[in-house]
From TrEMBL:
Keywords: Glycosyltransferase, Membrane, Transferase, Transmembrane, Transmembrane helix
Species name: Actinokineospora diospyrosa
Name of the protein described by the UniProt record: Glycosyltransferase involved in cell wall bisynthesis
Glycosyl transferase family domain sequence ranges: 592-744
SUPFAM superfamilies tied to this protein: UDP-Glycosyltransferase/glycogen phosphorylase
C-alpha cells in the first residue's frame, strides 16, 4: 500500500475508531447508571480481561495471518496453509485462554459472569481468521465497518440483557455476538472462502510456532499491561464505588490507547517493508493523541459530571490522571508494534516485562497513598519513557534526495488567494511562491470553498483539500485541518511549508509530515481566539510552535514571541512585500478616508474607526470608504446608523489588484485602525501608492508606519484618532510630504528580494534535516 493508501486507510480506521469509541463511551456511561457499583466493577474488569484476550489473539491469529496473506496471492497453497494454521491456533488457544480468564474472573465475580466471559473468549479467538484475512488484503474499509457493526451488536444485545435483569453477566455475554458479526462479516468477502482450508499438518511447523509465539508473548504482555490497573482495582479495593469510579475514569481516559490500536492495525503490514512507516505512524499518533489528551485533562469538571452517575462522581476528578495513563499506554503499544514488525520479540518482551513491573509498583504506591489513579499514571508514563525513546532513536524516515538546484515544495497554505475576501496572508503566499516557482516545483494545498477549482496560477499549482464542501469558514478550516495529515502524504516533497492559521495557529506539521518542515508565521492569534470563543486554542498553538525547528515570520515582534515559546528554534524575519505596480499607480487625490481589508471588528478595529470618524465628521471634507467583505458588515452598517453617519459611510465591497491601488492612491488618508496586526500589509501598500496612513501605535505597525509615512496615535484612543484624521485631511502639503516619504520607505520591501531571503531559509531547512 502506498503512503496515500495508508493515509486513506488511516482515515477509515480512525473514523471507525471514533465511532466505536463514541458508542462504547455512551454504553459504558449508561451501564454506570444502570448497574449497581458492584455489578459495574465486575463488568469493567471482565471487559478489560476480554481486551487482553483480544490483544493476544490478534498476534496469534490475525497479525501472523495478515503477513502471509499480504505476501502470497489468493488461492495459493502458501496462503491456504497460513489460513489453516490460523484456524488451528484459534481452536487450540481458546481452551487455555478460557481457563486462565475464568480463574481470574472467579476471584471477584459470580459464576454467571465467569460463564459469560468464557463464552466471549471462544468467540474472540474464532473471529481472528476473518480479521487477519481482511488486514492482510488491506481491506480496511470493510474491517472498519465490521468493527462498528461488532460494537453496535454488542451494545444492543448487552442493553437488552441488562434490561432483562441479567446484569454484568448479560453485558459480558454480548461480546460473543460481536465476535460472530466479525467472523461472518469477514468471510462474506469474495475470495476469502477460497483461502479457507483445514490442514492439521501445518500445526507441526516449528517456524510458524516461533513467529506466533513471539507475537503472542509480546501481545499477551502488552494486553496484561494495558489491563492491569482496571483488573486490579476491584481486587485491591473491593467491588465497590471506589473501584467502579476508577474503572469508569480509566475507560474514559483510554481514547489515546484506542487511537494507537487503530494505527497499529493499519500500519503493521507496512512496518515490515517500509522504512518510513514507523516514523509516520508515531508522528500521526502524536498529532491525533496529544490534542485528545489535552481536551480530557482541561475539560471543566462541570461538563463531565452530568454524564457520570452521582454514586460514581469521584470519577470526574480522576480523569486527568487516567488520560495521561491512556496516552502512555498508546505510546508503549506503538513502540512495541514497531519491534514486533522487525521480529525483535525478545527485546519487546524484556521491555514490556520491565514496564509491567514499573506499573505494578506505581499502582502499589497509589493504593498505599489512597490515590490509585495517580500511581497508575506515573507508573505508565515512566514505563513509556523507558520503552519509547530507544525505539524512536532508531527510526529514520527516508530522507529526501539531494535537492540540487530544484526543490519539490509542498506548501500547506490554508487560504486560497482566489477566495473572495481572502486576506494579506494569501497574497504573501502567492507572491512568494510565484517567484520561487521559477526555480522550484510548488504545490499549495488549500481549503475547499464553494466554486473553488484546482488550477495552475503563475506556475504554482493550487489543490483544494478537506472534508465537506467548505460552505462556512469554520467548516473550511476544520475539514482542512482534519484531512491535511493524511492527504499531504500523497505528494512527494523535499520540503513542507506550514502556514500558520487561525484559530490554532499551527497543527504541528513537523510531527506528522516525516519530511523537512518549516513554519511560515504571519500571525499568532490563538490567545485572542481563546478569549473570544472560550476554548484553549493557545495550548495547541504553543505545542505547534514547539514542534518546529525552523520558522520564518514577517516581523521582529512575532519573532520575539516565537523565540519565547521555543528557544531552540531558528526564527528568521522575512517581511511582506509590495507589488511593483503599486508604485506606478496614479490617481487624482480625493477627499475620502479609506479603509481596505476584512470587515471584522475584533482585530481590524472598525468600531473604533467609526467612532473616531463620527466625532470629527464635521471637520472631514469627504466620506469614509470601507472596502472589503467580512463577517461584521451588518453590525458596522447598524453602528454607522446609530452614530448618525450612514450618509457619510460607503461600503465599496471587495477590491483587489489595480482597483485597490487606485483607491489607495486617490485617498486623502488611509486608515488602519487595527487592534493587533502581524505586519500591516495594507499600510505598506498604501504607502507605496503615495498616501499617508493613520494607525494606532501598536507593535507591528510601528515597523511600516514611520514618521515619514504616516501618523501613529496612542493605542485605541478614538478621540486622538479622529483628530489625527481631521488634521491630516486639512493639510494638503503634509499629505503630499507623507505620501512621498511613504513611497520611499516602501521601496525597501521588494517581493523579489524578499523571495530570495525566503528561499535561503527553505534551503537551510533541507540541509538541517539531512545533517540530523
Amino acid at each position: 500500500m502506498t503512503a496515500a493508501g495508508l493515509a486513506r486507510a488511516g482515515t477509515l480506521v480512525a473514523c471507525a475508531t471514533v465511532a466505536v469509541s463514541a458508542i462504547s463511551y455512551g454504553y459504558g456511561i449508561a451501564l454506570a447508571h444502570w448497574l449497581p457499583s458492584n455489578d459495574y466493577a465486575v463488568f469493567a474488569a471482565g471487559q478489560t480481561l476480554l481486551l487482553v484476550v483480544g490483544t493476544a489473539a490478534s498476534a496469534a491469529v490475525p497479525w501472523a495471518l495478515a503477513k502471509a496473506v499480504k505476501a502470497h496471492p489468493a488461492g495459493t497453497a502458501q496462503r491456504q496453509a497460513a489460513m489453516a494454521y490460523a484456524l488451528g491456533v484459534g481452536v487450540l488457544g481458546a481452551l487455555p485462554a478460557a481457563v486462565l480468564v475464568a480463574a481470574v474472573t472467579a476471584l471477584y465475580a459470580p459464576a454467571s459472569a465467569v460463564v459469560a466471559v468464557v463464552a466471549a473468549v471462544v468467540g474472540i479467538m474464532a473471529s481472528g481468521c476473518a480479521v487477519g484475512w481482511l488486514q492482510g488484503e488491506q481491506r480496511f474499509g470493510r474491517l472498519a465497518a465490521l468493527r462498528v457493526g461488532e460494537v453496535v451488536a454488542r451494545v444492543v444485545l448487552g442493553s437488552v440483557a441488562v434490561a432483562a435483569g441479567f446484569g454484568a453477566a448479560g453485558a459480558l455475554g454480548a461480546f460473543l455476538v460481536g465476535s460472530v458479526v466479525l467472523f461472518v462479516g469477514g468471510f462474506t468477502v469474495s475470495g476469502a472462502w477460497a483461502d479457507l482450508s483445514w490442514r492439521p499438518g501445518v500445526l507441526r511447523d516449528r517456524a510458524r510456532w516461533r513467529d506466533t509465539a513471539g507475537l503472542s508473548a509480546v501481545q499477551g504482555l502488552l494486553g496484561v499491561l494495558t489491563a492491569t490497573d482496571i483488573v486490579l482495582a476491584p481486587i485491591l479495593t473491593g467491588t465497590g464505588p471506589d473501584a467502579a469510579a476508577y474503572q469508569l475514569a480509566a475507560t474514559l481516559g483510554r481514547v489515546p490507547l484506542f487511537i494507537a490500536a487503530a494505527l497499529a492495525v493499519v500500519a503493521f503490514p507496512r512496518l515490515t517493508d517500509s522504512p518510513g512507516a514507523a516514523r509516520q505512524t508515531l508522528s500521526t499518533y502524536a498529532w491525533l493523541a496529544l490534542p485528545v489528551t489535552a481536551v480530557l485533562i482541561i475539560t471543566p469538571a462541570g461538563l463531565i459530571s452530568w454524564i457520570v452517575p452521582t454514586h460514581l462522581a469521584s470519577a470526574v476528578h480522576l480523569l486527568p490522571y487516567t488520560a495521561l495513563t491512556g496516552l502512555g499506554l498508546g505510546l508503549i503499544t506503538l513502540a512495541t508494534t514497531v519491534l514486533q514488525a522487525r521480529a525483535a520479540y525478545r527485546k519487546a518482551v524484556a521491555r514490556l516485562a520491565l514496564s509491567l513491573a514499573v506499573v505494578i509498583t506505581g499502582l502499589s504506591i497509589g493504593w498505599y497513598s489512597s490515590n490509585l489513579a495517580l500511581g497508575a499514571g506515573l507508573g505508565v508514563l515512566v514505563a513509556a519513557g523507558m520503552v519509547t525513546p530507544p525505539v524512536a532513536r532508531k527510526i529514520r524516515a527516508t530522507k529526501p534526495s539531494p535537492p540540487g538546484n530544484r526543490l519539490r515544495i509542498l506548501h500547506l497554505g490554508f487560504e486560497d488567494p482566489a477566495l473572495p475576501g481572502s486576506g494579506g496572508g494569501a497574497v504573501r503566499t502567492h507572491e512568494m511562491n510565484r517567484r520561487l516557482a521559477r526555480d522550484h516545483d510548488i504545490t499549495v494545498l488549500t481549503t475547499r470553498w464553494p466554486g473553488c477549482a484546482d488550477r495552475v496560477q503563475d506556475g504554482v499549482r493550487y489543490e483544494h483539500v478537506g472534508i465537506g464542501r467548505g460552505r462556512t469558514h469554520l467548516g473550511r478550516i476544520a475539514g482542512y485541518a482534519l484531512a491535511l495529515p493524511f492527504v499531504s502524504r500523497r505528494y512527494a516533497a523535499d520540503l513542507v511549508v506550514e502556514d500558520f492559521f487561525a484559530p490554532v495557529s499551527s497543527i504541528g506539521a513537523p510531527l506528522w509530515t516525516g519530511r523537512p518542515t518549516i513554519g511560515v508565521v504571519q500571525w499568532l492569534n490563538a490567545g485572542e481566539k481563546s478569549r473570544q470563543y472560550r476554548l484553549p486554542f493557545f495550548l495547541v498553538e504553543r505545542a505547534g510552535v514547539r514542534a518546529h525547528r525552523r520558522m520564518v515570520t514577517v516581523s521582529a515582534g512575532i519573532a520575539e514571541r516565537l523565540s519565547a515559546m521555543n528557544a531552540a528554534a531558528r526564527v528568521e524575519v522575512v517581511a511582506n512585500g509590495v507589488d511593483a505596480a503599486a508604485f506606478d499607480t496614479e490617481a487624482p487625490r480625493g477627499d475620502d478616508v479609506v479603509f481596505v481589508g476584512r470587515l471584522e471588528i475584533a482585530q481590524k478595529g472598525l468600531d473604533l474607526l467609526l467612532t473616531a470618524f463620527a466625532e470629527q465628521a464635521h471637520r472631514l471634507p469627504g466620506g469614509l470608504v470601507l472596502a472589503g467583505t467580512g463577517p461584521d458588515e451588518r453590525r458596522l452598517r447598524d453602528m454607522a446608523g446609530r452614530l448618525g453617519i450612514s450618509d457619510r459611510v460607503r461600503f465599496a465591497g471587495w477590491v483587489s489588484g489595480a482597483a485597490k491601488y487606485r483607491l489607495f492612491a486617490g485617498a486623502r488618508v488611509v486608515a488602519v485602525p487595527s487592534r493587533f496586526e502581524t505586519f500591516g500589509m495594507v499600510a505598506l501598500e498604501a504607502a507605496a501608492c503615495g498616501s499617508p496612513v493613520v494607525a494606532f501605535d501598536i507593535e507591528c505597525l510601528r515597523e511600516v508606519v514611520p514618521e515619514s509615512a504616516g501618523v501613529l496615535v496612542p493605542a485605541f484612543d478614538t478621540t486622538g484618532y479622529g483628530r489625527a484624521l481631521a488634521e491630516l485631511a486639512a493639510d494638503p502639503d503634509r499629505v503630499r510630504r507623507l505620501g512621498s516619504g511613504g513611497r520611499e520607505m516602501a521601496r525597501a520591501y521588494s517581493w523579489d528580494r524578499l523571495a530570495l531571503a525566503q528561499e535561503r531559509a527553505y534551503l537551510a531547512a533541507v540541509r538541517d534535516w539531512q545533517e540530523v
